[in-house]
Amino acid sequence: MIAQAPSAEWQQENQRYLMQHLNRLRQVLERGKGEGEKAEKHSSLPSLPPSLPALEKICQNFGLSAFERDVLLLCAGVELDASFASLCAEIQNDSQRHYPTFSLALAMLEQAYWGALTPDAPLRKWRLIEIGAGNALTTSPLRIDEQILHYLTGIHHLDSRLAGIGTSIKISEQLVPSHWQIAMQMANTWYLAAQLEEVLPILQLCGKDVASQRAIASATCGQVNFIPYSIGVELLPHETGNLNLVKSLWEREFALNNTALLLEWDNWDNSDRKQEMAIAQFIESIQAPIIIISQERRPQKHRPIIAFDVNSPTTAEQRLLWHQTLRELTPDAIAEIENLVSHFNLSAPAIRGICLKAKSLEGTKGETGNGKLQEEQITSSSPLSPSPPSPLWDICRTQARPRLDELAQRMDSSADWDDLVLPEIEKQVLRDAADQLQQRTKVYEEWGFGGKSKRGLGISALFAGASGTGKTMAAEVLAREMRLDLYRIDLSAVVSKYIGETEKNLGRVFDAAEVGGVILLFDEADAIFGKRSEVKDSRDRHANMEVAYLLQRMEAYPGLSILTTNLKNAIDQAFLRRIRFIVQFPFPDANQRAEIWRRVFPKNTPTEGLDEWKLAKLNVAGGNIRNIALNAAFIAAQAGQVVQMQHILQAAKGEYTKMERPLTDVEVKGWV
């Protein structure tokens, strides 16, 4: 259930009850004023209202005695009623001592006892009061903790010392069935522990889908009437004293407001061993409900930890979510659902957020001015999209983009099939890969191939050929065809000399990419592949482990992953057998080079007198042809002329110099 804010009726009853107690206490002080001894015990307690007031909840939850309750009220009275300050000064015969002290409380209040002053007694243990500077404990000023003062008056909020690190999490009431089952199991675990009067076990949610983990954790809290707050481990104080303060305040928040702590682990660099041990002790000792959200299981020590694995919603659950949400928001988009679930692996909160954004874009169609999007802005995805774009699809693609800034580069997919000059048989292999990517949901799920085995369901390809033969362009064509993002990963930069680091880097790439179904282009596969199946030393063994891990992740990746190599023959056949598509990119012959020259200049580029058959005599790959064409365009533009053979000749000389090759007379005969 969701915690409700205090009602106006409760607020009035709480205020009345607090004032009655303060009036009672004032009478006690006035009767004893100037007498130097305890007042007669004639004070009567006010009657309890139907709903438990804040004062009584504090007394019950922290186990306050009648004397401790009145010490707390004495400190509150100074803040809420000006007469208390003057009474304190009069009783202590000092106009400067207009504050309560333990000495005053022991002398004037009923049922007084020394044990209430000790550090492990509730008033100090739970930080209900603060002791100011003074020469002696009994004569030092006492002050009520600000959070407790607000709570007494009926204002419930997170302690300001915790608000900087804790974030309120909305209780999730809509979970997919598999996640709801986990939430109910977790709630029952806590409920049974409470019934048996045992310490609540630590609950741990393990997985990569943080949004779903948060939703499950919040739903669990809702079932047991806890209020969830999230803290990243990296935000916890490093100094032991401050960490202990946070622990005490969270325990007090739980006692006051039934707060539960969601501790998010994965953004923390735990290289500081001392800090890791301090946080482990924090988790072990805190007397409050705690849920750990992380990818990997945390080790169990003394306090029991019960772990639950959280997977993304199944395809069927995602389909159901899309149907439910789109029916409410964008009925015209229902037909897109199969495409969406086929390519994007989204959490329930992500799907709902995407639908809300799509609805907001629908509402702005055709509106201009005041910063509102125009219709053409709303319906455009990448300007390179080959078919009428869908706002919903493009929102999914944007929202699901992985965070791979340091490991991968997102590439703009500008090329289409007409730009790709390849033998038809190789083009057909590329089309087959695109078709399988498009139809995988039907084949794997509806037709049952996915139920046979989860191994080998990923769509993998190897693009082999010399530099400049079109391998990267082919990946761009596939990305544009499928309207998916393309990420280039330089394997030579990912590979590490440290054992296990390469696998960790690759794992980060695949884990982040799975949500968005992006196309992964692993460039320079020669950096990790090779004829290394025969193990001769530890380096070969390590290299084989890296290759095996990469192929394993490619086989399980729910999208298209591509390897490129200049040296296919250097890759062992055992590795090649695990790749579904192999496309050879041959060095272009004269006819193919002429075709590339015919297509290389955009329609808006002014040209004159270009002879593609003469240009085709340049014995270079398509990538070099594109470089020469671009440089020739700049040369012509600088000269204020249209692109002619003379400009291409000048650009070709520069390209050949870069390649450290001589430009022969045969190649440029008859150009100018």
Task: Report on this structure.
- With 672 residues, the chain is of the alpha/beta class.
- The protein folds into five domains: 8-156, no CATH class; 162-309, Rossmann fold (3-Layer(aba) Sandwich); 315-400; 417-585, P-loop containing nucleotide triphosphate hydrolases (Rossmann fold), CATH 3.40.50.300; 590-668, Helicase, Ruva Protein, domain 3.
- Helix content is 49%, strand content 10%.
- It is built from 29 helices and 14 strands.
- A six-stranded mixed beta sheet has the order 3-5-6-7-4-8. The chain has a six-stranded mixed beta sheet with strand order 9-11-12-13-10-14.
- Strand 12 (519-523), helix 23 and strand 13 form a beta-alpha-beta unit.
- The termini are far apart.
Please name the defining characteristics of this protein:
672 residues, single chain, 5 domains, six-stranded mixed β-sheet, Rossmann fold, alpha/beta, elongated, 10% strand
What is the structure about, briefly put?
The protein has 672 residues and is α/β, with parallel strands linked by helices. It contains 29 helices and 14 strands.
Q: Count the domains.
A: 5
Strand content: 5-15%
Shape: elongated
Would you identify the regions where 5 or more consecutive residues have pLDDT less than 50? 366-388
State Rg.
Answer: 36 Å
Give me the CATH superfamily of the largest domain.
Answer: P-loop containing nucleotide triphosphate hydrolases
Going by CATH, the architecture of the largest domain would be 3-Layer(aba) Sandwich
Number of helices: 29
- Largest sheet entry: 6 strands, mixed
Please bin the fraction of helical residues.
40-55%
Q: In whole angstroms, how far apart are the ends?
A: 84 Å
Instruction: Tally the beta strands.
Output: 14
Mean pLDDT: 86
Strand order within the widest beta sheet: 3-5-6-7-4-8
By helix and strand content, what is the structural category? Answer: alpha/beta
